[in-house]
Every structure is written in C-alpha cells, then in structure tokens.
Give the backbone structure.
Amino acid sequence: MPHTYALYPWSWNAAESCHEPPEGAFAVLDLRPEAEQARAGQSSGWGFFAWPDMVPGNGPNIAPPADAVTLGYGDCRELLPDTATRDELRIKLGLSANPGGTTLIDCIGDVLGSLSDPTGQSGPKPLLPTREGLLEIHLSNHSRVWMQAFDANPMMSTVATGRANRIRDVIRTDLETAAKSGGPTLVAKVLGGLLDRWGVDYSQAAKWKNLIRGPLLAELLGKSGGKFNPKKPQTSYSDDFNDGNTTGWTSVAGTWDNAGTAFRYNSSTSNGSARFDSDVSSADHWSIITQASVNTMQNRIGPAVRFAAGATTYYGARYTNTVGGIRKVVTGTPTNLGSTFGNSALHTARLDINGSTFSYLISGATQASATDTSITGNTRGGTSCVAGSTLTPSTADDWSVDDGITAAGQPMALRTGGHRQGWARVGRGF
C-alpha cells in the first residue's frame, strides 16, 4: 500500500496529556530534541509520519495537513529523494549536511546515524545496535523497513568518526548512567555484556577503555582499588507478589500497593507507573506482566522497560480493548508511538527493548514494533497504567525483568538477580 511521507509536528492531546501523531498518520519516528519531548503541551520539532491510502471500504483516506513537509509518495524503501527533498530534511531538522543514501529510508537512517546528536539536545540520538548486531528501523504499520550490519571495531578505535562516533558517545553516557545507578559493579556488568555481544575479550583493555571517558575511568579505578575490569553479567528479577508487600518497588506516579497476591494500581492518576529498584545488566531487556483484574477494559497494567533510576522516564505499554499502544514517557510527559491494539481477555504482556527497537507481545504474539532513539542506558524495569480507580483498582501478577544474557554458561531460566520472591519462570514459555 503506498503512503505519503512527510515531516510534521507532533500533536498535543490535552485530554490525555500526551503527544501523539497527527490524525490519520502512521510510521512514527520522533525527530524532536529531548527537551521538546519532555514538554507538557504543544512541542516544537518534527516527526516522520506516513499517511496511507485506505483500502476501499475500510474508512476514509485522511490526507496530510496542507502545511506538511512532503517527502514523497509510494514506499519509503523505493522512493528516490531528489536534492530538493534532501535540502528540506537538512533545513527543517537543522542538520549539518544533506542526508545521504539512495532511498528515502536510507536518508532517515543517516539522520539517525552520522547526522544525529548523541546528546539529544538539538535533534534525535543515533540508532543503537540490537543484540543481533543490527542497526534497524521499524515503522508502525510497516514493520522493519531498514537494516544495516553493525561493526563495533570502528567504535573502539582511538578515533571514531561518523555513525560509530555518535554511537560511542551514547554508550559512554550510558556507562556514566550505570555508574550513578549501581557504581563500578553495574558498569562492569554492563560493559561485560556489550563486549560479550561484540566478541571482544575482556583482556583487550586497549579496546574497551576507548568506550569509557577519562573521568569515568579514573572514578571506576579509584573505587575499585585500581583493578576495574569488565565482568560476566548475571541479573534478572521477578516478583509474584505473594508476600503481601511491595518491597523493592517505588511508586513513581500514582499509588501502587499489594492486594495480597497481586500488584495493584490504586489511584485515579493518569499515566501511573512503578519502578523496580534493582538493575539488570543491559539496557536491552524485557519486562513481562500477567493481568489479574481490571477496573475497566481501558485501564490495564502493562510492562515498562528502560526505567530511569531517578526520573519518570521509561518505555511502557498501555493495552486496552479500544485505544492503546506503545508509549514513551520523558521526565513525566508521554508520547504515543506504537499502533493501537487491544485484547478483551486477561493476558500476559511483554515489552522488549532491543537497541532502538521495541516490540510488544500479548501471550507470545507480537502486536506492534517500532523504533525510537530517545531513551538509552537505563537498566531497570517496572509497570505502567493509563488510569485506575480507588473503587475498582486494576491488578497484575507475576512480573519479571530480564536482559536475556546467559551468565557463566547457565541457562537463563536458572539464574536470578537475588530478589527474594519465589516465582520460578522455568517452562512459562515466554
């Protein structure tokens, strides 16, 4: 199905207090600076959106707004942008040069590559590699539309340039985030997980030290008696809530408590969230939760990933029988990213963040996948909920977070991060 692709501002939905795509648009990529994503109200900056031609009988075709910056009509994998289109991307997005590449989606890949901003201050951060060693772009209503193999070696050279330099800058910041959250122990595990993924031996200090800025390395050596080294990662956590308490959890937005054997969102605050305050060994992880009850079909508890240790920042999934999707929350302000989906029955939900790609699954079946580069580095999981009720609160059970890393040869299902809850995940089929 052909689409009209365009740049356009995000819409502010005052009723739900969130940013969302303009009416009729799919194929969401957020190209705004981080400060605009965190703005509660109409923001500045752009999104990359697509307006599809509707199949006859399936509803009206909603055309892009007249003031949209049109980038082409057809398939983004086949469209060949001319110089004028590349000029538009450079000027509107404030890029240092016209984006390169053959097709329209190649140009967007360059915007999220060598032309990106690792700090997120002036524009989008770069794409990060997946566990499988790929750089990729997933678009809502499209699935994966762009892919490139990732080579870590240029990033670990003494002088990294282009995309490699920008990815390295993000990883350096992420390691600093790990140091603030869990000190040298967490940094050593996060670094070990990265090196294992890239096939780099821990003894190759000349390589891995290029990933760490001087002040951080000095801090790590100082706190480790001069003997800081990467370590094999070994972390996952779960909670069955059968102990009747919420030990280890922080209610970040709204009120969360334990109903006796289930986690309960006991508040009418919209966009509620709770964080589990222990770190896994990678920013690439998944969170799983099982529904126990709902107060309405519109208010269900969902999983959250990449939860910041000290801010209301995370990726979450809101799932209902009418509206919903994957969303991000940046210092308290939500942006709806994924497709709408729903399920009227109680079910198990999983949100998986992998590089810059996240996928949402219900009972093992993928419902949506999309790409976002905004939130990186955070190594905690949690839960989220659209809204609750003090009269009929929503509850959920059997929560877990896991980075999927096999530690010291142990099967993933046999290892634990040390949490005291007794839910064994062996054989649950996730």
Helices lie at 34-37, 83-93, 104-111, 162-198, 205-208, 214-223. Residues 125-232 form one domain.
